[in-house]
Amino acid sequence: MLVTTKDMFKKSMEEGFAIGAFNVNNMEIIQAIVDAAAEAKSPVILQASSSAIKYARINYLMKMIEAAVEEHPEVPIAIHLDHGPDFETAKMCIDNGFTSVMIDGSKYDFEQNIELTKKVVEYAHSKGVVVEAELGKLAGIEDDVNVSASDAIYTDPAQAQEFVERTGCDSLAIAIGTSHGAYKFKGEAKLRFDILQEIKQRIPNTPIVLHGASTVIPELVEICNKYGGNIPGAKGVPDEMLKQASTLGVSKINVDTDLRLSMTAGIRKVFAEEPSAFDPRKYLTPARELIKETVKHKMVNVFGSSNKI
Ligand code: G3H
Ligand code: 13P
Ligand code: ZN
After folding, report:
1. Which end of the chain is more exposed for a tag (fewer CB within 10 A), N or C?
2. Number of other CB atoms surrounding residue 273 within 10 Å
3. How far is Cα 140 from Cα 149, in angstroms, rounded to an integer?
């Protein structure tokens, strides 16, 4: 069933679990995520960045997601724009049937971020669509946003409260030490749970979103490197920390890098072990299976969203 995130977030806040938001770029990724959600009996958010939309094209994305919804009518599925860069992109997604959009004004100053977010909220709400906004800066590389690690700015709890009150956004992405990509920490992984708790105290009814939350699963990195890859020293947010975040009021956890690693590991292994293989189904089938395993693991063992349909 195609839904907004409203009801799933309400349940997540009442029962203390998080919902995975997984980035989609093609058919195999969509199938793997939704099949995993069906097996885990978990609600799920499929999200597409503006570069994913450019790559796959919005009509294809929507039709493939419609097919997934038809195949698994029992699974609550939200379609979300990830890191919407401007009003026009958010509007295009809303007009094409997305049930949720993110407007990422974190690259702007506080007042400009509020102004842009308000504009998107006004349009989205008039169409029954919900809005995620972002306050604070994640270290790393986002779509059109490049913030060096030294520039990373944790979300200020008082500002978060003012931001939500003034914009009317439905959920808020915060910066507590995560970052996008496969290189999140140089030394020990560290998240500012104290900031998360203070934010949650000030805005207890606003679902909180964690971006840059891939685990960078060591086994997958190892497979990639073993079969010709070169991604040394990759490091993500350990499962235990994500589990803690899920129980402390984080309602949405964004995952892209772990899906990329799953797909690449599956493909690399076939290429290395069977150099004569050239039927794409030969390497995309195990790649899809690995993505499904990764997603199901998170739903069942980390986010606590299984059996929450
Ligand atoms: O946060 C960014 C997501 O991983 C999407 O990345 O813009 O390369 O599709 P992308
Ligand atoms: P990762 O790079 O940690 O998977 O984060 C993805 C993300 O935040 C998408 O918005
Ligand atoms: Zn993100």
Report:
1. N
2. 9
3. 6
Overall pTM surpassing 0.85 (yes/no): yes
Predicted confidence at residue 11, as pLDDT, reads: 98
> What is the structure's pLDDT at 45?
99
Q: How far is CA 157 from CA 30, 165, 175, 187, in A?
A: 35, 12, 11, 26
Name the residue of 101, 103, 257, 261 whose CB sits within 8 Å of the most ligand 2 atoms, as the mutation to test its pocket.
257
- Write down the residue that tokens 């097996």 correspond to: 39
Q: Among all chains, which residue has been given the structure tokens 């803690």?
A: 244
What is the Cα 123 distance to its own chain's centre? 23
Pairing of strands 100-103, 130-135: parallel
> Which residue do the tokens 């779509």 mark?
143
% of the chain residues with pLDDT over 90: 93
Q: What is the pLDDT of residue 141?
A: 45
Band (138; pLDDT cuts 50, 70, 90)? confident
